[in-house]
């Protein structure tokens, strides 16, 4: 119906050929709008992306060669005020001298979302450890992480069980009264 309204207002017929100038201009516009080929920039060439999960929290880490900057949700890790939380996030860097040395040579960007503060902290911790192992490809570092705490490299599959009817929680049942 929209096309019929346009014909009525412009008075043009369906079979009428477009003007030659309009055709030439349309082909020139198509030639100008040809997309340029995208190249990978040097900064994106050697980036390792990993993910880690803990409960409802998800963390994605991007590790690249750099100067030792660690950012969580675009903020420096130094801006985390709670000391024990920050120490738990940086735990993979303190376990091994290999990881400590590598931390000064890479930049790590982490995006974390979902869940609560503690589960986000543990997801960040796992993402940092997985990123260092994937970026370096070092088997001794992987073995040291697994010997220290397997949860650094292996996501915890446990999830909260959904609540059922006839009870206040997943397994508990409402109390019965016989009088």
CATH class group of the domain at 48-150:
Alpha Beta
What would the average pLDDT be, to the nearest integer? 83
Strand residues, percent: 15-25%
Helix content: 40-55%
Biggest β-sheet: count, sense, barrel? 5 strands, mixed
Q: Give the helices and strands as they follow along the chain.
A: HHHEEEEHHHEHH
Reported by name, the CATH topology of the domain at 48-150 is Ribosomal Protein S5, domain 2
Shape: extended
Q: What's the arrangement of strands in the largest beta sheet?
A: 1-2-5-3-4
Cα Rg: 29 Å
End-to-end separation: 72 Å
Tally of individual helices: 8
Task: Provide a descriptive summary of the structure in words.
The chain has a domain at 48-150: Ribosomal Protein S5, domain 2 (2-Layer Sandwich). 42% of the residues lie in helices and 16% in strands. The protein has helices at residues 2-10, 20-32, 42-45, 83-89, 91-95, 97-103, 117-136, 139-148, and strands spanning 48-54, 57-65, 70-72, 75-76, 106-113. It has a 5-stranded mixed β-sheet. α4 runs parallel beside α7 (117-136). It is extended.
